[in-house]
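Replying to the earlier thread about multi-chain prediction with a worked example.

Input:
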Amino acid sequence: MSTQLSLGRVARAVAAKDLRIELRSRVIINQVFPFAGLVMVMFAFALDNDDVLTRVAGGLVWLATLFSLIIIIQRSFVVDTADGALEAQRVAGLDPAGIFVGKALAVMVQLVTLEIMLFVAAVVLYRVQLHADGVVLLVTCIVSATAGLSFVGTLYGGLTAGSRGRETLLPLLMLPVVAPVLIGATRATESAFNSGGAAVSDGWPWVGVLVVFAAAFGLGGILSFGSLIEE
Amino acid sequence: MNEQTFNARVATPTTRLIGAMAIVSMAWVVIGGLIVTPKDVDQGDAVRIMYVHVPTAWVAYLAFIVTALASACWLLSRKHSMGFDRVAGASAEVGVVFMAMTLLSGSLWGRITWGSYWAWDPRLTTTAFLLVTYIGYLAVRGLGGSLEQRARRSAVIALLAVLEIPLVHFSVLMWRSLHQKASVLSGDGDIKMDGSMLTTLLVGVIGFTCTFAWLVLHRQRVLAMQDAMQMTQLDAALRERASESADRVEGLK
Amino acid sequence: MDHLGFIAVVYGVTFTVIVALVVRTLSQGRNLASKVADKDKPWT
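Result:
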């Protein structure tokens, strides 16, 4: 018991490992990023109205993010379960809370990168305009929303990882849970973009919701990840 | 293997009593709701749906609470008594059915009263959300594995659900308040109820609760027997393997 | 009665579903009870 590494060190090691694997294999970069971009284009095909697109751009970005999150989470755990690596980490005595935080951190990095790309796409494809006074709000929104999404995703991803067709359960479990993030992030983003007359100041209460959500699931995940990945 | 048959009785005095109370109350609700009670001053005959809708909504939420409490008890009890897990599972199964019926009756009531089958008001939206959460919980229970794994996973999921419900409800509340709809959608809240109406409603709540209790008690007995069968089959399989390998060892000597 | 159709559907579906649940649970119970030893039944 006393040779256990601290949560912080485990988390950093796991996050570094996951990110290194991604940098070498480039699966997310080569497959998921284009997928997300494609989703943005398909929204334009489906909605077919420039004014509507500009108005709902915030929501579309976060929807595309959520769909991509599912794939990113599944990938995050395929990496571990393919060779029983998650089992090995657990058996080796690594604190599951550390594994949880580490994996969530790696997902966060990938997700934030994706979101930046999607926001650029929104400016280009949907003609959204971001003014200087909305930038702080947008950045805060992105960070807090992504933290919440990463925690929830890692938690339910751990549960549904593994064989026997559990992966298909991930969207059903995860998407309802992240509903507050979708609602909050979209409203905050719309405020940042002044979509439909929303003022920047209207967005901050929503950031509050996002922060509470991230804190709740960060803590919830730290407490319960261990139980969920036990085989 | 001997195919012994055992006593096929599943009832106990408790469930018989609860069952009888349920049947009597249900009959009262039907007669009261459809015949005895008058039309409402504002809603007309639409209020009759409330005699069914309010009790099923109550049961659906009660079931959720029972699942959460039973899950917490399982997690906290030192010997992880499986009875708690079975009650949690049975309650969720009954709850999901009542939640679906609540949404149906509420939707039809809405069609009559406001002209549309759905509205994105906080209570309806949270109810729909709860339905999906139940379904997810039941899917997790079906993932397989040992009984303890099933209990542990579903207990955690149930408690995470308890964590999210207020988050969801609060965000939806904030969201819908942006649209500043005049909330006519308080449903049952504003009706002036005449004596027979109130009685029918109360009897309905009691009766449906008895039905809920009966269903959960019987369903968790079914689960107990299913679990026992699973253990028996597991034991038999293990014993077969053990005797197989013992034979092989014998053969090597 | 106004809206008789809607009211009939609500009452009809609700009580039919409940009865179906009751019947199914009882028959599952009796079926299993004949196969499972009494010592494994927590209520006996």
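The mean pLDDT of chain C is 89.

Feel free to reuse this layout for your own posts.
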